[in-house]
Amino acid sequence: MSRVPVRPSARLPGALERYKVRSVSEEAARDGTRRLVVNGRAVTVRADRLEPLASVLRDQLGLTATKVACGRGECGACTVLIGGRPRMACVTPAALVDEPVETGEGLAEESAALRERFADSGAFQCGFCTPGQVVHATALLREDLARADAGMGAAARRERVRHALSGNICRCTGYQAIVDSVCAVAEEQAGPDR
Ligand code: FES
Ligand code: FES
User: Fold this and answer.
1) What is the pTM of this model?
2) Cβ(74) to ligand 1 under 6 A?
3) Where is the domain boundary, 68, 102, 136?
4) Is the dihedral of CA 133, 138, 139, 141 positive or negative?
């Protein structure tokens, strides 16, 4: 099977390096359409060759919560969940996606407490990076629910949140309020007895 390079390798900060898709099979892209499950709904989209998932979501499905800033896998603004894992939709060919996709719209209910915290604590200024931050943090909070029994301490949780979100770049908040917000919701979820 021959492989087609998506784009030159770009350096990614922090934890998002491992999320980058590096190649796409010609067979996967040949048909020109793709069946996707997006926010629990089965859809058929045009996904010619290297069409980025971000473009499909925004331009074909009207799911504009997914933002495109750098467009080359460096900032995390376009983060969506694929199979429950954070992925950068601007460098993910839709033709390669074979697991359910969740966007900010589909995560609206689940992320309500998080978004409220962001708003209350001033965890954003321009807000362009915020949807990607919230999507990524929602995935982290799912992990925290499962890990709460392991007795993770507040300092360890804070470090994990900071590291995980290091690939979601924000140029105006200094990150403190973002990390505070995610940790506060994680602690609420863990409950007083954990
Ligand atoms: S817009 Fe996708 S990583 Fe920046
Ligand atoms: S709030 Fe993230 S770049 Fe401004």
Assistant:
1) 0.83
2) yes
3) 102
4) positive
What are the residue ranges in the chain where pLDDT is below 50?
A: 1-27, 29
Q: Is the CB of 14 under 6 A from ligand 2?
A: no
Please give the Cα distance from 41 to 30 (Å, whole number).
Answer: 23
Q: Quick one: how far is CA 183 from the chain centroid?
A: 18
3-state SS assignment for residue 82: strand
Taking the C-alpha atoms of residue 160 and residue 177, their distance in angstroms, rounded to an integer, is: 15
| Total domains present in the chain | 2
Point out the ligand 1 atom lying closest to the alpha carbon of residue 54.
2
pLDDT score, position 66? 98
Range of the domain at 169: 112-190
57 close to ligand 1 (CB < 6 Angstrom): no
